Each structure stands twice: as C-alpha cells, then as structure tokens.
Amino acid sequence: MYGEDGNDIMTAGSAGSYMTGGAGNDQMTGSGVNDTLYGEAGNDTINAGAGDDYVLGQDGDDILDGGAGNDNMGGGTGNDTVNGGDGNDSINGEGGINILNGGAGDDQVYVGYEANSRDTATGGTGADTFRLGYIYAGYGSLSAPHVITDFNRSQGDKLLLNFASASGTHNSNGTPLVFRGELSSALYYDGAPLPGTDLGTGFTQVWWSRIGTGSTAKTVLI
C-alpha cells in the first residue's frame, strides 16, 4: 500500500503488509502480523500493532508504536518518539532530539547513533542493553546530554560503549551520559569490569562522577 502527497490515513488489510506513507502527515496502522511500515516525509504517526514489525519514521517528527512483538524500529531524521511496546525490540531514534521507550521485554536501545542527535532513553522492564554510539568529541556537551532514565543492573541492564575511533581527534571527553538510577562503583560490560582496552588503544581509564544523592542522583560519564 502506497500513500501519496497529503495527510493519508492508512490501515493494513492483510498480514505482512508493506506500507509507505509518502509526503504528508500520515496516520498508519499495521495489520498486527509482521508488517513493514515506512512513514517517509512528514510528521507521521505509526501504530504497528502486534507482530514482529519493521517500522521506520524517516523524515519529520514522527510518533512510532511497535505494539506487542519483537520489533525493529528507527525514527529517521527529525525529533521522534519511538515506543517499542511489549517484546524484545530494537529501537533507534537516529537523528534529532528523540524519546526512546523500550517497554516490556529485553530490548536493544541505540543511544546517540547519529551525529548531533540527543536521546532520552527508557528501557522499561526486562534486561535491556543500551548501546551508545557517538560519545566522543564534537557531538555534544553537558548542555545537551544523552539521558538514560532507568538503568538498573539488578534487572540485567547492560551498557555497551561504541567508539568509532580511538585515534586522531576522537577522545572520551565528548557527549556525557547521564544516568537516573543506580550505577555501581565500576562500569560493567557483559557482567565484567570495563577495562580501558575495551575502548580501543590509547585509553587506560574510564572516568565518571556522581552528582547529587538519593532518588535525584546522576552519574555523568566523562
């Protein structure tokens, strides 16, 4: 099913539907069984429903809801809200200022995987993995951090750091990560203390500082 220019209202008629919204602010609803949904240009609202869906907002400020099932979701460019829903989802805000909600299940949440993005991520219940992308020089500051609201190691949450390069002008003093939740005295990578070598050659330490106490405590990775 293909939308054209204009604000379309589209509902999938069969399982495994393929839908594109085209230009305009579209409203798209999946069949509930393993659909592929592309918003394309415009500020789109996409409700995939149940099933293992592939959902991509593309251009514009989109609102995406995966519903039940193991969904693969990306916001595209723009300031997006991406809700995985129940199931083991993979969600990525991509460019822009994004709100990411994994929902129930063991989710893969991609934070800061586009240059100049700014993400606020909530894993929800389950053992979630937060995968951090561009956390080096040139892609952020303390005034525009990426935020994880509910990191909880006792639930099995993990933090994976990805450095595109450990040489040249890239370094570990870029975009900070702010936690609202618990973080032990050591950062953990797959259940083991994180050594400097996991960041590539040239790194010997990971520094972080705690700001505040109690329920308002924050930990900033620098």
Overview of the structural elements:
- The protein starts with 8 loop residues before the first strand and ends with a strand.
- Residues 135-141 and 163-222 have low confidence and may be disordered.
- The chain is 0% helix and 32% strand.
- The chain has one domain.
- With 222 residues, it is an all-beta fold.
- Strand 18 and strand 19 form a beta hairpin.
- The chain contains no helices and 21 strands.
- The strands form three sheets. Strands 1-3-5-7-9-11-13-15-17-21-20 form an eleven-stranded mixed beta sheet, with no helix packed on it. It has an eight-stranded parallel beta sheet with strand order 2-4-6-8-10-12-14-16, with no helix packed on it. Strands 18-19 form a two-stranded antiparallel ribbon.
- It holds the Pfam family HemolysinCabind.
- Residues 79-88 have a biased composition (Low complexity).
- Residues 62-88 are annotated as: Disordered.
- Residues 66-78 have a biased composition (Gly residues).
- It comes from Sphingobium yanoikuyae ATCC 51230.
Count the E strands.
21
Strand order of the largest sheet: 1-3-5-7-9-11-13-15-17-21-20
Task: Count every helix, treating DSSP H or I runs of 4 or more residues as helices.
Answer: 0
- In terms of DSSP E residues, the strand content is 25-35%
**Can you write the helix and strand succession as a string?**
EEEEEEEEEEEEEEEEEEEEE
Whole-number tally of structural domains: 1
- C-alpha end-to-end distance: 47 Å
Rg estimate, integer Å: 18 Å
* Helical residues, percent: under 10%
Mean residue pLDDT? 77
Class derived from helix and strand content: mainly beta
Given the C-alpha coordinates, what overall shape results? flat
What oligomeric state is this?
A: single chain
Major beta-sheet overview: 11 strands, mixed
The low-confidence parts are 135-141, 163-222
